[in-house]
Design brief:
It is a single chain. With 226 residues, the protein is an alpha+beta fold. It has two domains: 99 residues; 118 residues, Sandwich (Immunoglobulin-like), CATH 2.60.40. The chain is built from five helices and nine strands; from the N terminus they run αααααβββββββββ. A hairpin with an 8-residue loop joins strand 8 and strand 9. Helix 1 packs across helix 3. About 16% of the residues have low confidence.
Length: 226
């Protein structure tokens, strides 16, 4: 088996949660150090999310014609359906890329190709009876790792949104969003942000299933300070 084929298998196993905890950590370490693997992973994740959205919308089932005698017209109909599915999939991937690139949050720690990422702080959010707002020290540089425990633990994937001034009404601002996040073996959903792109202030970290539903959304309020 070539290294390329092995990497494809590792990426697939990581995306579907088929790795042990040690394998997952080792793979994440490789992603942080290997820009080529990180690029392949990003492309695979984009395709995975695009296809998942198509399946969630029941697109392929709706686009499958009933069995019938093969004719030239029927052949071109099926080719057209397949082409349309590809176009829709590409559009979803492009939209996902634009959404991710405009976001402060990322699904994976990013770094320069010649340097490993520095996790400067790790903030963990778990629902408690205490309604207070923790005051968290904002690092001057390095990455912040956000860990959140979702209310609904059976979702296929999650979305985390970072909001500035979450109670400011029209003044609130969505700082970043990371989608397609999986529940880790430690019971948390992880994402990352470059601390240099954040400023002191009041924030909210919202975690919810990627698929819309009547429940499962949580908002954790906190204050970042120097």
């Amino acid at each position: 088996m070539t290294d390329s084929s092995r990497d494809v298998g590792c990426i697939r196993d990581y995306l579907v949660g088929r790795m042990t905890e040690d394998e997952r950590l080792a793979f994440q370490d490789r992603l942080a150090r290997d820009p080529v693997l990180a690029r392949e992973f990003e492309e695979s994740l984009q395709l995975h999310e695009g296809l998942r959205e198509l399946v969630a919308q029941n697109y392929f089932a709706a686009a499958t014609p009933k069995p019938r005698i093969q004719t030239t017209r029927g052949l071109w109909y099926r080719v057209g359906i397949a082409a349309a599915a590809v176009i829709v999939g590409v559009s979803l991937v492009v939209a996902w890329r634009l959404n991710q690139e405009s976001s402060v949050l990322t699904a994976l720690p990013t770094s320069r190709p010649d340097a490993a990422p520095l996790i400067a702080a790790q903030f963990t959010f778990v629902a408690t009876r205490d309604a207070g707002r923790p005051r968290l020290a904002l690092p001057s540089s390095g990455l912040i790792e956000w860990r959140a425990s979702p209310e609904t633990r059976s979702a296929a994937s999650y979305r985390i949104t970072l909001i500035r001034d979450p109670e400011g009404g029209a003044a609130q601002h969505r700082v970043g969003v990371a989608t397609g996040l999986r529940l880790g073996a430690d019971g948390y959903v992880h994402c990352y942000a470059d601390s240099s792109q954040l400023a002191p202030g009041t924030y909210g970290l919202r975690i919810e299933p990627s698929e819309p539903g009547p429940a499962g959304t949580q908002l954790f309020l906190f204050v970042l300070q120097n």
